[in-house]
Amino acid sequence: MSLDVPTALLERAERGEVSDAEFVECVRNSLPYAYEVVSRVAADLRSGTAEYADNTIPPPDETARGQLLRAMASDAIRGGLERHFGIKLAFQNCHRVAAFPLASVGGDTYSTFISTRAQLLNQSPELRNC
After folding, report:
1. Largest CB tally within 10 Å, which of 54, 60, 119, 128?
2. Which residues are bridge partners to 99 per DSSP?
3. Secondary structure of the chain in the HEC alphabet?
4. d(Cα 51, Cα 111) in Å, to the nearest integer?
5. What does the pLDDT profile of the chain (130 residues) look like in tens digits?
C-alpha cells in the first residue's frame, strides 16, 4: 500500500475531490522519507544558482527506498509533490531524484538529464537491484 489514508480523508475523497494540500499532507505522513528527499531537492534548487538540484545519496534502508520508488512511480503522488513545491521532478534510479524549475522543462539541461543516454551512463553494478 502506498499511502496510509486517514478515514476522514478517504470519506471526503468518496464524496468528491480533495485539495492538493490534504493530499500532500497524506503523502508527507505516509512516505516521510520520499517527502523529505523531494523537499530537500526543492529547497536546494530555490537556494542555489544551479540549473537543477538532485539527490545522490542512497536511501538508508529498504523501507526508505520503497517509499521513494512508490512516490516517483505514482503519477498522482509525483504530480501532487510537483505542484506543492512548484518544480518538475526527474527520476533516474532508486535514489537519484532531481528538481528542475518548471521553465526548464524541454530545455537542454532537463532533456539531457532525462535522456536514455543519461540513464545508461548513470548505471553501475551496485545499483542493479536498487
Report:
1. 54
2. 53, 89
3. CCCCCCHHHHHHHHHCCCCHHHHHHHHHHHCHHHHHHHHHHHHHHHHCCCCCEEECCCCCCHHHHHHHHHHHHCHHHHHHHHHHHCEEEEECCCCCEEEEEHHHCCCHHHHHHCCHHHHHHCCCHHHCCC
4. 12
5. 589 999 999 999 999 989 999 999 999 999 999 999 999 999 999 998 899 999 988 899 999 999 999 999 999 999 999 999 999 999 987 778 999 999 999 999 999 888 888 778 776 665 555 5
C-alpha closest to that of 24 among 16, 15, 34, 14: 34
Grid cell 500500500 is found at: 1
